Amino acid sequence: MDIAATLPSPTSPAPGADAQHQRRARIAGVLFLVTFVSAIAGAQLYGAALTDPDFVLGDASDTGPLLGAVCELILIAANIGTALTLFPLLRGRFPALSLGYVAARLVECGFIAVGILSVLTVVSLHRSPADDPATAVTAGAFVALHDWTFLLGPGFVVGLGNGLLLGWMMYRSRLVPRWMAWCGLIGGPLVALSGIAVLFGAYGQFSPVSAVLTLPEIVWEGALGVWLVVKGVRPRAQEDTGRLTTSHGRQR
Fold it and tell me: pTM (2 decimals)?
């Protein structure tokens, strides 16, 4: 018997690699959907802590903002999880870009973490017994800090990392349909440019113009999450990626 014939081809993925790639892809899809739910829930639960100037001096419950902070902690974990699960699928063909995607996710999470601390500081001021107008001014400053972190993190870095970088890698690798990747390639730059426009006061952060320019990125992330959960990655592209990953590991 020819022993060499029973060994895996040096250009083929390792045994079980296909199933492992699909499992990673589906985990990434679930985590993308978790980022959607946790981000929306967090923004809603913050509620009056960010929108009502009298919150800090009133007697409203702080349970909502605290639950919102928990949701955003889940968001941070899910964001990092998407990067770590997709990295092994992409690093063979895109060693630098895939690492850049992980870095972009970490930077985004850093901004989100600062935003969480800002809201928790407002909650601490709300719990303070001092009925001092200066307290409201201080709380307003932390609300402003939260808004800036939201603009520069989810409103700018996401456009470069989750939109442009990930969209380009998915487009070139064909792990998902190219029409879907185009949503990221278009939506990512639009989100980043919109963030710069808001930075210079062209329009409001939550204005209709900002919402319209953010829509393609939302479609991209939502469609990607659903596709990965339901279908995983495309088989032929998955095989090519696995072969490249194996080759990359052998070269190292």
Answer: 0.83
CA distance 177 to 85: 19
Question: For the range 54-63, what are the long-range contacts, defined as Cβ-Cβ under 8 Å and sequence gap of 24 or more?
Answer: 54/136, 55/122, 55/126, 55/139, 56/122, 56/125, 56/126, 56/135, 56/136, 56/139, 57/126, 57/131, 57/133, 57/135, 57/136, 58/126, 60/126, 62/123, 62/126, 62/127
Residue 89 lies inside a defined structural domain of this protein: yes
The percentage of residues in the chain with a pLDDT greater than 70, rounded to a whole number, is 85
pLDDT, tens digit, for every residue of 178-188? 999 999 999 99
- Quick check: is 96 in a domain? yes
Total domains in the chain come to 1
Is 153 a member of any domain? yes
**Residue 9 DSSP one-character state:** P
